[in-house]
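Dissemination and training. As part of the outreach component of the grant, students in the summer workshop were shown how a complex can be specified as a set of sequence lines and then modelled as a single object. The example used during the hands-on session is reproduced here so that future cohorts can follow it. Participants entered these lines:
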Amino acid sequence: MPEFLDLHGRTNKVVRAAAEAVLRRHGLRLGQDHLLAVLWEHDGSTPGEVAAALNVTTPTVVKMATRMTAAGLLTRRRDDRDSRLVRLWLTETGRALREPIEAERRLLEEKITADLTETERRHLMSALAKIHRSASDVLGGAPIDPAD
Amino acid sequence: MPEFLDLHGRTNKVVRAAAEAVLRRHGLRLGQDHLLAVLWEHDGSTPGEVAAALNVTTPTVVKMATRMTAAGLLTRRRDDRDSRLVRLWLTETGRALREPIEAERRLLEEKITADLTETERRHLMSALAKIHRSASDVLGGAPIDPAD
DNA sequence: CGCGGAACGTTAGCCGGTAAATGATTAGCC
DNA sequence: GGCTAATCATTTACCGGCTAACGTTCCGCG
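and obtained this result:
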């Protein structure tokens, strides 16, 4: 059992759980803050645009938007000029969450990286970036087997 | 949007995707290799034991075991002496996957950490361990609000 | 011996994520 | 102008994960 894969996975799990706990106190679920973040910057984005911004598939955004609409955070409206498009608009409630959620997220990051020195933190980010790149290469370069 | 939370999350996602791609070529899905790993060491474990070993809830193991049984990787049998217990036994197919899957996993880890020097890798593991600990503390220390 | 509580696995229902099929609308080309 | 092809969102169906409710089986105590 490779060490890094294991540790990284376990770490991600507990970090996710911590984020989930924080978000729940504001009535949000795990990915919903990211969706909101896109709209905070570009209110009226389409599901496809949001999906692209979040590196997620469109159905994921559609379903999440449905729940968030029911929760009163969003509004769905078809685009007037191109009725294939749907635009997601923030409600006042959704807009009001921006400050608290952003603060909460900063606080969580601080807590979680509290035991690291500034140097450690820089090195960690750099190493993670390299891992991210390598993993992307594995993903993008290997799926098609040329000998097949 | 905090840097570490963001980068760590994105990295995890691409790493997961890479692992998924590898496993799929062997007919497995994302968490199933972990379940198998437990049985490779302790064949005949109960769902509860497996769940504890994987840091996952029992229902997750139960459902996964159901699918893996249907896929011919596992066998379910009630314990003779205590019929509350259910024991999961590897089939020959499930047992035969051990070598290839472990090799595949080692290879993936190598590929993914290829751009890191040995020092970088050590520092990364150490930093991740600290993060893991801090996040666990956030999770275990904050959920109960004493003022409530 | 019996009865209540503890220890299990299973089921049901939700959430985020994916791929694949469906449906509606626009754009483009003849 | 009309037919085809591209572009969107949505639906369906699956998977891993969780919590909560349920049903069995055992254990210990009176």
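Residues 118-141 of chain A form the longest helix (24 residues). Students were then asked to discuss how this feature might be tested experimentally.
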